[in-house]
């Protein structure tokens, strides 16, 4: 299964950037179409999907489990501490609570731009000439 360390890493860890993208897509689709049902954020591994089964994303438990449908299917198995993500809505409140402050910082003219600690993210950045960061090629 595809896994992130914990839910805050979805916002802050470049290595699991696809999780952030998937959560944004789920939320955007729901808002654009008015669809209020379950949407499963999932990665389809094109290169291996013929030989390996497609597994749900996994990460830490949602902050509130009181209203979660199909709770037993989503709970971690005996060998894991990670929860299966079958519905983005289980994490939507927590996601927005983490995302909105990051977006506010991004659009705050008083907050200076800071380069990421990880130079790997800069290798393909279209703004490399603007920030003039030196990276090893």
Mean pLDDT: 79
Strand content: 5-15%
As a percent range, the share of helical residues equals 25-40%
Main β-sheet description: 3 strands, mixed
Strand order of the largest sheet: 1-2-3
Output the number of helix runs: 5
**What is the CA-based Rg, rounded?**
17 Å
| Contiguous runs where pLDDT drops below 50 for at least 5 residues | none
First-to-last CA distance = 32 Å
The tally of strands reads 3
Please provide the ordered H/E string of secondary-structure elements. EHHEHEHH
Envelope shape? globular
Give me some keywords for this one.
137 residues; globular; mainly alpha
Quick synopsis:
15% of the residues are buried.
Give structural notes.
By secondary structure, the chain is mainly alpha-helical. The protein is about 35% helix and about 5% strand. It is built from five helices and three strands, in the order βααβαβαα. Strands 1-2-3 form a three-stranded mixed beta sheet, with no helix packed on it. The longest helix has 17 residues. It is globular, with a radius of gyration of 17 Å. The two termini are about 30 Å apart. The relative contact order is 0.16.
